[in-house]
Amino acid sequence: MKNRLKVLRAERDWSQQDLAARLEVSRQSVNAIETGRYDPSLPLAFRIADIFDMTIEEIFLREEEPRAD
Amino acid sequence: MLYLVAIGIVGTLKLTDAINGPTGFILLALATGLLIPIARQRTAGCASKAMVDYNRRVLVSSFGYALGLGIAVTLWDNYELSRPVVFAISLLPTLPTFGVIWAMARYLAEEQDEYLRHRTIMAALIALGFVLALGIFWGFLEMFELVPHVWAWWVLPVWAIGLGFAQLWQKMRDA
C-alpha cells in the first residue's frame, strides 16, 4: 500500500529510527511500511496517524480509486 | 560465526577419528558457550526483548541437547541396555529439542513488533516448505535406492537451515 510516511517524516526532520522510537517498533518495521513492503495492522496504523496528528486516510493511499456506483 | 567454526572443527575432528565420541560431545557442549554473548544482547541493540529471551532459551536448550546427546550415545556405546532404558535415554537429546520448538513458539507469542513477528512467520513457512520438499524428494530417492537412509530427527536441523537462509534473504532485502 502506498503511503506518505517518508514525506511526513522529512517534513519533521525525523529519521526512521526517530519514528520507530515514537511508535515503539523496530527501524526495520518503519522501513518496511515506508517502502510498501508491509501493510501495518489497524492498531499500528492508528498509532502512526496519532503521531502525525492526521487520519489514516491522509497517510495511507488507496491503490485504486473507489468505484463510483 | 565463531560458534559455526567451532562446530565445524569439532565435526571434522570427530569424522576423522581424531577425537573419540565423549570428547566430541564435551567440546560440542563447550562450543555452545560461544553463543552466550548473543543471548546476553540488550534490547538497546537491534534485538527486541522477545528475541533476547528466545536466544537465551535456545542457548539453554542447545546446551541441554549437547549434554543429553553425549550421555545417551556414551551409554548406548558402552552398555547393554534394556528397551525401556533405551526409550528413556532417547529422550535425553529429544526433550531439549522440544525446548527449542517451545522457544520458537514463545518468541512468536511474545514479540511485540508486528513486522518482526510477520517476518519470522514468513521465514518459518519458507523453512517448512524447504524441509517438506527436501523430505519428499529424499524419501523417493531413498525408496528407489539412490541415496542412503537418513534419520528422521534431521527434520529439525534442515528446518533450521531453511530458516537461516530465509532470514538471510530477508536481511539482504531489507538492507
Automatic annotation (TrEMBL), chain A:
Pfam families per the UniProt record, alphabetical: HTH_3
Keyword DNA-binding attributed: yes
Keywords associated with the record: DNA-binding
CDD domains, A to Z: HTH_XRE
Ranges where the HTH cro/C1-type domain occurs: 5-59
Signal peptide: none
PANTHER family membership: DNA-BIDING PHAGE PROTEIN, TRACRIPTIONAL REGULATORY PROTEIN-RELATED-RELATED
Protein name in the entry: Helix-turn-helix transcriptional regulator
Organism (species): Qipengyuania pacifica
